[in-house]
Structure formats: C-alpha cells, structure tokens
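Table S5 (text form). Sequence records supplied for joint modeling of the two-component complex.
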Amino acid sequence: MSQTLASLRQSGAESFAALGWPNRRVEAYKYSDFTSLTQADLGQTVAQPLAELSDQDGLRCYKPGEAPQALVDKIGSLVPLDDPLAAYSTANLDDVLIIEVAAKSKLTGPIVLDHRRLAGQAAFARYLVVVGRGAEAELIERYASNGQGASSPVIEVFVEEGAHLRHLRSQTEALDATHLGWTAARLERDASYSHFALNQGAGISRHNIRVDLAGAGSHLDLYGLHLLDGQQRCDSHTRINHNAPNTTSNEVYKSVVGGSGNSIFQGKIYVAKDSQKIEGNQMSRGLLLGPRARIHNKPELEIYADDVICSHGSTVGALDEAAIFYLRARGIPAAIAHKMMVEAFVQDVLDEVGDCAEVTAHWQAVISSYLTSVFADQDGQA
Amino acid sequence: MAATADTVERVKKISVETYKYGFETEIEMDRIPKGLNEDIVRMISAKKDEPEWLLQWRLEAYRRWTQMEEPDWAKVSFPKIDYNDYYYYAAPKSMGDKPKSLDEVDPKLLDTYKRLGIPLDEQERLAGVAVDAVFDSVSVATTFKHKLEEVGVIFMPISEAVAKHPELVRKYLGTVVPTTDNYFAALNSAVFTDGSFVYVPKGVRCPMELSTYFRINAQETGQFERTLIVCDDDAYVSYLEGCTAPMRDENQLHAAVVELVAMDNSEIKYSTVQNWYPGDENGKGGIYNFVTKRAQCRGVNSKVSWTQVETGSAVTWKYPSCILQGDGSQGEFYSIAITNNLQQADTGTKMVHVGKNTRSRIISKGISAGRSDQTYRGLVKMLPNAKNARNFTQCDSLLIGDRCGAHTVPYIEVANPSAAVEHEATTSKVSDDQLFYCRQRGMNEEKALALIVNGFVKEVLQELPMEFAVEAQALVEISLEGSVG
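The corresponding structure-token record, covering 867 residues in total, follows.
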C-alpha cells in the first residue's frame, strides 16, 4: 500500500475511533441509529477486487502508485472524515481506483463499476473519478450482494470546467445486508453533474451525498428513489453547497414504503455568503403503502446570500383512494391499479434517467420486481 | 385605505427613534439577592405566600434543572449565560401592600403603561380589552376583573389564582409543559414569578379580548412568567400578549412558559406581539427570549391558534406547539418574524397529531435584514393513530441585504398512511421588479420596501385581532428601518 493510502487509512481510523458509530443524538443521524450494528451485519473484511474497466478512448485508470501526483492528492479531499461512516470506510480501505476522463473527450460507452459482494463479507470500494475539462461521460455504479455483511463504498467525483457527468447509482443488495455509501462531488466552472440513486436493497442503508458547486455557472441534478418493503430502513442524506455565484441545483427524491419500512430523507441546500444569483429547488415526496410504514423527511435550507431563489417542498401521503376506485371501476384488478399508481408516482424520476437502454432496463426491472413483491398479497383480489 | 393612512401616520410619529419603548421607569424596587439556589427559590415562594405543594414543585424543578444541560442545537450563538448573575425577583416597592384597586396603584406605574400605549384606566378603554399588566416580577393591575367574573371567566395574576383557585391551578399547572420538559422550562418552573391565569368555564364565550402586557424594567433581572389558560367545553377565549423592555447594554433573560388546555369543542386564540429590546445596531444588549409555549387540544374538535409577530429580542428561541390529542382537533400557527441588525431568531412550531381527523396549518413568514440570522424550525409529527390527519405548512423567507441569513429546518415524521402532509418553503429577496414598480410611482425606497413587506406578511397580519393588527403593521415597518441602502 502506498504512503498516501496508509496515512489516509490512519486518519480515517483515528477519526472513527473518536466518533464511533453514530446514534440518534447526532443530528445528521437523527432518524437512524447505527450503534446496534453487529459483527454479522458488518461482515468479514476480505480484500475485494475493485471493478475492472475495459479500455476506451479518452479513459485512463490508475493505481495510486502509478498516478500523477495531482490526481493522488485529490484522494480523500472531498469526503469529510468528521462523518463517522466516511471515517469507517476510509479506515478500512484497501485500494483506490483512479479513473480519469481526458479533457474534451466524449466517451462512447459508460464507465461501469459493478459490485457483487458475497454473503458474510465486508467490502470497501473506493474510487476517484476525474472528468477533465469539457469532457462528457456516463458513470454507472451498481451494488448487489447475496446476503449479510456490509458494503461501505466511497466515491469522489471531480467534474472539471465545462465537463458533464451523468452518474447512475443503484443499490439492490440482499435484504439482510447493510449498505453505507458515500458520494462526494465537486463541480468547477460551467460543469454539470446529474446523479441518480436507486435504493431498493439492504435491510439497513444510508447514502450520503455531498456536492460542492464550486465554480460559477455549474449545475446539479440530483434524483433519488427509495423502494422499501418488509423491515427495510433506508436513509438518504444529501447536502448541496452553493459555494459559487450563478449556480443552480434541482433535487427530487421519491420514497415508496411498504411493510414496516422506514424511509428517511434529509436534504440540505446551503448557499454561502456572496454566492449570488442562485437557484436551488428541492422536492421530496413520500408514499406510504401500509399501516406500519414510516417516513421521515427533513428538507433544509441554509442561506447566507440574498439574491437567491430557493425552495423545497415535501409531501407524505397514501395512494389516492378515488383514483384507485376509478381504475377498478374500469375493471382493473386491485393489484394492478395500485401498481399503476405507484409507477406513475416514480415515473418522473425514471424519465430523467435517460436513454441509456441498459440503465433504463435495469431500473425498470428493479421497480417492477419491487412492485410485484410489495403488492403480492393483493394479487388474489379481483 | 384607512389602515394604510393610519400606518403612515404612526410611523411619522415615531420619527427616527427606532425603539420607542427603550425608556426606564425610576421606581423603588424590592429585590431579593442576586443568584440562583434553593434558598432563592424558597424566598420567591415565600414572597408570594405560596402553599407548600407549589414550593415543593418549584424545588423539584430546580433540582432537575441543576442536572440539565443548556440546549445548544438551535442556530443561535451568544456568550454563556451566568445564571447566578441575575436577580430572580424584582417588584416595585409600592406593590408590597397589594393595592385594592387601580386608584391605589403607584401613579408612576400607571404612567409607564400609558407611555407604552397601554392605559390601564378602565374608563379610557375603547373596545373593551381586559389587561393584566406584569411589571418585572409582579402583576400590577388587572382590569375588567369584575365584569369577567359576572360571566364566570377567571382572569387574574397566576400568583393570585394560586391563592384563590388552588384546585384549578394544581389540576392544570405543569400538565402541558412538565417541569422537566426542557432546560428553560425547568428554570421557569423553579423561579416563575407572575403571569396570567385564565379559566373559561363550560359554554362561555369570553365577552372581551384578554391581554397581558409584560414589561421588564429593572436592571439585571430576568423575567420568568408563567401563563396558564384553560378553556373548558364549548368555551372560547382570545388572548393577546405584548412585551417591551428598556434599552440596556447588558443582555437580560426572559424565559417564559405558556400552557394552554383546550377541552371539547373549545377554542383558544393566542396572539403575541413580541417587541423586547433587540439590542443596538452593533448587537450590544437586548433580551434573550427563551420561551416554551405549548397547547394541548385535549377535547374533541377543540382548536388552538397561535399567532405571533416577533420583532424584538436579541436572541429568540421559541416554538409554540400544539398537541392535537382530541379527535378532530385543530392547530394553527401563524408567524411573522423579523430580524434586523445582529438579531438572531430560531423559531417555529411543533404540531403533534395524536387523534383521528386532526388538522394543522402552519404559515410562517420570516424576514431577515442587516446582519441578522433567522431560522424556521418546525416539526410535524403524525402518530400511528392519527387517521386522516392533515397538515399544510408554508414557510417563506425574505432576505433584505446580502449579510443576513435565512434558514428553514422542518422535520416531517409520518407513521400513518392515511395522513397527508404538505410542506413548502421558499427563500428569496424582494424582487427588483416590484421595487422598481413602486419607485416609479414616486415612493422612496424605504416606503416601497415597507409596502412590499407588508404585502408579504399580510396573510398572517389578517389573523391578528384588530387592536393588534395596526400596531403590528407599524412595527413591521419600524423594525426594517435603516435596512435599505
């Protein structure tokens, strides 16, 4: 292991030793306690190979030992070690893959980071993605597993001046797994970044997203879905920092909760002093499908500049009975009527996912298998 | 429009003096020694001739308070408070032998209230608002007592109610805000000095608005008032509260507790115009306003409505809340909060839906100017039994100037699928187009801003009783004076 990684691991370990697993008294973890995680939840640390990438024009991958110093210096610079989960992952990191998209290049295919963790294991994937000036790329990040244990991936993304990155992340781990993910990004002047997060798996999951709009004119789109059932608890915590003037952001999170699921969304839009001409909009909507389902939303605005237009909206409710009745009156079975309504609810997020056939097919498959299982008990009804 | 003309007139009268209530009344005070310990608690209790149970209740609260920690989660910062550096009891000497009627009240005190625009002289009252005037630690006068007694409404200082209606006070005191609820509530329970007690019996619609006027006068004192309002079945009461304090360089502490109890089909309307001294333009002085206000809608179809206009105080920490227990009960919260200069306010509400078919509505308008910082912090909680509960929340923030901050921190917790919660929040500045439009019509910038701001807060102003609405409107303009250009 290189010097850089060793010292990063060291500081992660120190930070985690000081912080420990977060409990509800920590405001950022108000609705999810991690102190009850057992060794079985976390799994055995086994060195896991990072995703392998096929060569493409304009795409370069490095190990920290062979990468230019400028890239190596970026490792760990976006993820704050004062967050216990970031510290935990950093303390256990084994290797880092540095992915660089050359300036002005437009990748022909997506960069795919596929992860399949085996039951009982703990995985700590770690990536640094740098999209060079004026480049365009699509990044697909997928996490799946076949049993208990935890994945704690950390990905740091730099979108340089005028570059565009679409980042599609899906988490479909086994229902008894734990998922503790971190995504941190920094956008330079006129850069744009779209992040999509599909959260359907894991018994306990938490996804931290932190995006710094550091260059004027940069734009962020953030979309998320929570599809929960059974005893699942899924917590998305997003923070958008408008640190430069003329930056815009748009965030939409939707939660569908069945069984005794618990969906948590905490999202903050932060506008720094002197960051004028800002537009930041956020929407979080939740749908409760059963009497034991829970939703906790905490949208937040923290604003220190005046020439801004910021808003957030948040709604929580159930499916509209009148609409269900309308469908059933037309001879549509209950289960299908319910599915149609939920599909419509998540459709606007799906619409934004884009034209990459592989991704849309994957998302659609996840949504439809979720709907089949969540409405399974209604199938008998006509 | 008459109201607009009236506002212009009022603002003119106030001239350049921004805080017109900053004067101090020179009056001989009866104080107990500085500091806080069990002896002080006993002394306050003795001063008020309280029964043993209340003393024990206070001591219990004090003991719990000593074990509690000052909360630090609010988005406000101020130097650590030395709780031993305050006087916990200060009363005008002349109040020692309890005047029987207004004629016996020290003319200096009456004059103070006259200067504040609160004539206690019953003859002079217009529409008939009964006033309880609290000066530092004691209530100096309560007007219209007899007229209220005729219909059975009890409206008196809480210290008097303890003596005259101990069974009522004992039954309800601390049942909405327990002594151990939070740090400041525990402190208040231990050392509270005066405040109002209102009991509206079954089926009575209180014939007039009730009002309490709080005045902090003495130096280095804290004011800890306790208000308890109980509205029995099918009753109605509207209660107003106003507050001011002299301009001083040091910070003074105000930690109040307000408890409202609404029984079956009753309604309580609680309005506040809070205009404590906010400190000067450099943030020196001002009141620390740490208040716990909570209403419990115990009965079916009961209703509580909080309306507040918060323009004063250096630091505000206040979350009037409603526990909607009775089926079909309703809670409302209308708020205008204005911060200028270096003021800090962390305010909002909590709506806890326990019963079925409960409804709540939150309208909050925040305006930050100068270098101030303002936070809306609210909780909407739907418990598993809150079937068909509804909430609508709207909180808008307006920023004036590029050195101020406006923050929104709502918590939404839903555990019943039939409950519907809607929340929306916006933050923006006064639009240049609107300003330009007004300026074009010959208004100066300050006037144009006042007009736009008044339009922004109108939704809430409309909820205020008439007597308060005009005052509040003028206050909105004064608070923003000097924030343009």
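Note: Residues 2-479 of chain B form one domain.
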